[in-house]
Amino acid sequence: MKPLKRYQYERYAILCQLAYPTTFNHTQYGFSPEGRHEITDRWGRTIIRVLWGEHPEIVVVFKGSQSIWDWLVNLAFLPKQLPYGQKRCHVHWGYYKLLEQKSQLPPAAADPFVTDSMNVEFQQSQERQRDFASKTIYEQIESVLEPLLAQGKRVAFTGHSSGGAMAILVAHRLYQRYPHAIKRIVTFGQPAAGFWNFRKHYPLEQRTYRICCDLDVVTFLPPVPLMFWHVGKLLWLHNGKIYEDTPTYQRLYRSLVSWILRPITYHYMNKYIRNKDFFDKH
Hints:
alpha/beta, Rossmann fold, two-stranded antiparallel ribbon, 12 strands, globular, AB_hydrolase_fold, Fungal_lipase-type, Lipase, Sec_MonoDiacylglyc_Lipase
């Protein structure tokens, strides 16, 4: 498994952070002006951005929880069986349903101050959007990716929180049609997306990186021990270091010990030496 480079980490982390604002200038990050497609949820909120440019990599960014309803989805952890050949794979029902919902387009009317020909073009555009919105979220992602993959591009999925779980499920499903088109999956603060049989048969283990930061409680969800299992390589950011594939119980134990001992560690000389740069500002 290839290590995740620093510039790759920073790129995906920035894009995940920028998934939350309503707008951002994607061209500043190497994507073409026309290389952007936004997918909305049933309330018309953007939850997924597909970005591409001259570079052979497409990036699909999944936004995490935005409302109380989104957070409640984390509790909908009933099993949902996925079709995967002769194998049985069970995943989190709530995250699966997020990908099965359809978009809600805001109502729009033709501008009375433009010409008839422009109004016709506007109406045709609206028809195309309505046809697109009639598809599920996953079907919309696939529709956007298909022509880009036909050009020889490869796709990277990234997401924060529940968006990371959605990225895992989309990558797993897309792999069944385009096994060589998926470059990598990088998630941040992601809850587990599937059961043990999903982890056992997950085909992208060597291309998946799961980033956790200290004691991020969401990464321990759903709150049912030994029922849900994470996939991919764990990169745990803790106490200024990166730990790889630390077991969950060890991560929880070290985090709690760190919190308890933190007041004492501030007395160590390395803390004073680390803060020496403060004096350059005075």
